[in-house]
Amino acid sequence: GVLAARQRSAELEELIRKDPGRFRVLTGDRPTGRLHLGHYFGTLHNRVRLQELGVETFLIIADYQVLTDRDVAERLDEYVEDLVLDYLAAGIDPERTTIFAHSAVPALNQLLLPFLSLVSVAELGRNPTVKDEIAQSRQSAVSGLMFTYPAHQAADILFCKANLVPVGQDQLPHLELTRTIARRFNDRYGNGAAPVFPEPDALLSAAPLLLGTDGAKMSKSRGNAVSLAATADETARLIRGAKTDPERHITYDPAARPEVSSLVLLAALCLGRDPRDVAADIGDKGAAALKATVTEAVNEHLAPIRDRRARYAQDLGYVRRILRDGNEIANEVAQATLDDVRAAMKTLY
Ligand code: ATP
Ligand code: MG
């Protein structure tokens, strides 16, 4: 589970430092709204860091997957632009990182057919993240897409033969399924010497599950998030309303005090400090002082990101050019992989 993934992530960090050229990253988001602090400290920060280390990176905008938990994908064009703006603001460089939307890459989507044949209905039904999302879903009935999207996500990851996926904790079951699909495909169709697909690893950050203002996972669609693009005043208001607990003395104890600890961690990440020290400094000053510290730290940390975002938002033509170029690269990569798949399956005559 999570502990093993944390340990593996520490090992991976070592390997990445030694030889960044060994790794290829695929990661991304659903265009369901603006990115928030959970994304930023959960994965976006890691993506930028990997890019800076020289790891080849693909950033997917999972637009088809918006339909997993709702009937209609609303304001899709606007939300896609929002994602690209958030990426650029956080430091993603489109010269080094390929940004694309999976609906624009037919060959990627075609991988879903053989992949679905490699997993059982029972396996799909056991996925704890999907179970959770079904419970939260706005739909009255569970769609086939909701049930099968982790296999689609395997296609997202494997289309470029990525071996490293920086994600939050909720994604671990999906990564496990991707590894299973890669392994089974190689077993069934590969010639042992040259596997078609790598078995990708998840890379967890120091904040794999940041909580929102209601104490549940911070999520775009729960209304419990502080978005990167929020103003300093909005940020202050949202954090003032965040759930804490009745105990006055502030400590960092994620297992026993999840809400307070998530706030402490947020301040610590922004300040580049140890969360235990941040908690000790606040001590008996209580939740109001904690929230003031968090607000100031977040606003200070995000100020340059927010400035950059506002500047890029003036040039949506640039944003669309980035997507057009990224889609083009992704299509070439996907076609090469699909050719490999069809050759292995002996459907490329
Ligand atoms: P939605 O509510 O529409 O599902 P979301 O906020 O859950 O949106 P996703 O697009 O599903 O965001 O997730 C994108 C990536 O961000 C995933 O890797 C996910 O693990 C990570 N992530 C999302 N929320 C958090 C969080 N609160 N803490 C850490 N990582 C997160
Ligand atoms: Mg989600």
UniProtKB/TrEMBL annotation:
<dbReference type="InterPro" id="IPR002306">
    <property type="entry name" value="Trp-tRNA-ligase"/>
</dbReference>
<keyword id="KW-0067">ATP-binding</keyword>
<keyword id="KW-0547">Nucleotide-binding</keyword>
<dbReference type="InterPro" id="IPR014729">
    <property type="entry name" value="Rossmann-like_a/b/a_fold"/>
</dbReference>
<protein>
    <recommendedName>
        <fullName>Tryptophan--tRNA ligase</fullName>
        <ecNumber>6.1.1.2</ecNumber>
    </recommendedName>
</protein>
<keyword id="KW-0648">Protein biosynthesis</keyword>
<dbReference type="Pfam" id="PF00579">
    <property type="entry name" value="tRNA-synt_1b"/>
</dbReference>
<dbReference type="InterPro" id="IPR002305">
    <property type="entry name" value="aa-tRNA-synth_Ic"/>
</dbReference>
<dbReference type="InterPro" id="IPR050203">
    <property type="entry name" value="Trp-tRNA_synthetase"/>
</dbReference>
<dbReference type="GO" id="GO:0004830">
    <property type="term" value="F:tryptophan-tRNA ligase activity"/>
</dbReference>
<keyword id="KW-0436">Ligase</keyword>
<dbReference type="InterPro" id="IPR001412">
    <property type="entry name" value="aa-tRNA-synth_I_CS"/>
</dbReference>
<keyword id="KW-0030">Aminoacyl-tRNA synthetase</keyword>
<comment type="similarity">
    <text>Belongs to the class-I aminoacyl-tRNA synthetase family.</text>
</comment>
